[in-house]
Specification:
single chain, Sulfite Oxidase, Chain A, domain 2, Immunoglobulin-like, binds ligand MTE, binds molybdenum atom
Length: 541
């Protein structure tokens, strides 16, 4: 107290910064840094954005149970499907941490700028660490986090100086200049909004105008992936879409998506190559052009995710085009004992596929480059992925695949088995009710009946029968089945029933061609896929 009164009156003192202004300056600086990082990532190395790299790292370090929980989330109101909603949530969460940190450090910078500077440096360091620790690290990836930290510190320095300027230097003797509040606020707005704009531009162009090598590469391949042996045309009654089932083929944009990739790998076809090695007679290295030059098969295949819950939607069907994985392995010559095909994605993810499944004479397993007549979409594995009918995706369907090693299950564990999931995971015989949806009200038709419909799958065995039971009593009624397309695809069912108005409960169960009926006992997806029968409550009006 005494000090204050005895201090010389001329001593310049920093203008006091309110915590609110400090917070605003820091938030604007962090936004500017974020914008700079997204934009420079888009320009230099499309998949190097530190923000997404941090999110990727969170995913990589998360316990399996948490990831599994994430996969079950969806936000239909925002158009976020399973497998996307969790990623969006994670990105929003990291954004919230950034903003909250900025508010707190900015408020703490009221007296001195150090906390705010430290926080920006810390964010930069975390981004740098995430980028460095990424399985897809390349030196140009260092640019974005460094630029971000530099821009953040630079913007903060300028705004802070402007807000705290008391140019009352003792030698000029003039009256202390007060900070120009309008200028400061304008600076904050410019930095903050500019940062948001730059981030949006970076995200928008990350795979497009600037760093869009992969997009251009994919576009250039349109029309060039022509199967030597196209898939058989679908029979007219392959689905009962008018009765409420999905269409037989799933459009690429509707195809379920599941992966651990926050940043979709952006490989061009020219950059792609794949090594086939390990327990083989002759190591192979393949280029994309070599794949294109081989006989291309087109196969209609229903893929299923092991995380699909009973009555879930992680199941879709497409025409996949590619080379026979079996032929490829025969060419390399698989040594005895190599019971596992260990495939690795360019992003480090891996799957272990039983060699015997792929080597079966009737195996339709593909090294796929096309999906429904187009090059593989980026999010479904462009330029090359694996597809093995009959196996859940996590043990077979490696997207952005760049390495195949023939090995043993004892020698090497893939991404999900390492986290407690099964090694061998054939798809279970399952069915789903599509009409009615839960608690839907069905109106009776002219004949007093309602139509129930759904799908069933037992890839590689084939569906022989689907039965439906109402209100948990009474007989299992056989449903009508759509024409079977092949043993590796789903089959649709429908049943017209006269039902009394009121509340009802429908269950269904599928029986595959081996005579096995889908299990009644519900089990969780971990470790090898959910079992149990769907049951849907609904109303008839
Ligand atoms: N690189 C990579 N490939 C992957 C995955 C992944 O996380 N990373 N997930 C697998 C899983 S669990 C499934 S179910 C399928 C889903 O393929 P889709 O997204 O094309 O439907 O991809 C498989 N391939
Ligand atoms: Mo999956």
């Amino acid at each position: 107290m005494h000090l204050a009164t005895t201090a010389p009156a001329t001593e310049p003192r920093p203008a006091p910064l309110s915590s609110r202004l400090g917070a605003a300056i820091e938030v604007a600086s962090v936004l500017a840094a974020l914008g700079a990082s997204q934009l420079s990532a888009a320009l230099v190395a499309p998949s190097s954005a530190p923000f997404q790299a941090v999110a990727d790292t969170v995913v990589r370090l998360s316990p399996a149970g948490l990831i599994e929980f994430g996969k079950t989330l969806e936000l239909p109101a925002l158009g976020l499907a399973k497998g996307v909603a969790d990623k969006a949530g994670l990105l929003v969460g990291i954004g919230a941490v950034l903003l909250l940190g900025a508010v707190l450090a900015g408020a703490a910078a009221r007296r001195r700028p150090l906390p705010a500077r430290l926080l920006i440096a810390l964010f930069g360091a975390v981004g740098l660490a995430a980028v460095l620790g990424s399985p897809v690290f390349a030196p140009p990836d260092l640019v974005a986090p460094v630029v971000a930290a530099a821009v953040g510190l630079g913007v903060f320095g300028r705004l802070y100086a402007a807000a705290t300027r008391t140019a009352a230097s003792p030698d000029t003797g003039g009256p202390p200049r007060v900070p120009d509040r309008r200028r400061v606020l304008r600076g904050i707005a410019v930095a903050g909004l500019g940062g948001i704009g730059a981030a949006a531009a970076g995200v928008a162009f990350g795979g497009g105008a600037f760093g869009g090598g992969a997009t251009r590469s994919r576009d250039a391949l349109r029309g060039r992936i022509t199967p030597t042996r196209p898939a058989l045309a679908l029979p007219p009654d392959a689905d009962f879409a008018s009765a409420g089932t999905p269409t037989f083929l799933t459009a690429n944009r509707d195809f379920y998506r599941i992966d651990t990739a926050l940043r979709i790998p952006r490989l061009t076809a020219a950059d792609w190559s794949m090594r086939v090695h390990g327990l083989v007679d002759e190591e192979l290295r393949l280029s994309y052009d070599e794949l294109l030059a081989q006989p291309l098969l087109e196969k209609t295949i229903t893929m299923t995710c092991v995380s699909n819950e009973v009555n879930g939607n992680l199941v879709s069907t497409a025409n996949f085009t590619g080379v026979s994985l079996r032929e490829l392995l025969l060419r390399a010559g698989v040594r005895p004992g190599a019971d596992q095909i260990f495939s690795t994605s360019v992003d480090g993810w891996s799957a272990g596929t039983p060699t015997d499944v792929v080597l079966r004479a009737d195996s339709d397993a593909l090294l796929a480059i096309g999906m429904n007549g187009e090059p593989l979409p980026a999010e479904h594995g462009f330029p090359v992925r694996m597809v093995v009918p009959g196996l859940y995706g996590f043990v077979s369907a490696t997207k952005w695949v760049v390495d195949l090693e023939l090995t043993t299950f004892d020698a090497k564990q893939a991404y999900w088995p390492r986290r407690g999931w099964a090694r061998r995971a054939p798809i279970k015989t399952q069915s789903r009710v599509d009409r009615p949806r839960s608690f839907e009200t069905l109106a009776r038709g002219p004949a007093g009946t309602v139509t129930l419909a759904g799908i069933a799958w037992a890839q590689q065995r084939g569906i022989d029968r689907v039965e439906v039971r109402l209100d948990e009593r009474g007989p299992w009624l056989p449903a009508r089945l759509s024409t079977q397309v092949n043993l590796s695809t789903w089959r649709m069912w429908r049943l017209d029933l006269a039902l009394a108005p009121g509340s009802h409960f429908v269950q269904c169960r599928a029986t595959d061609a081996t005579g096995a009926t889908q299990a009644a006992e519900p089990t969780s997806p971990i470790p090898d896929g959910a079992a149990g029968r769907p049951g849907i409550r609904f109303e008839v009006s």
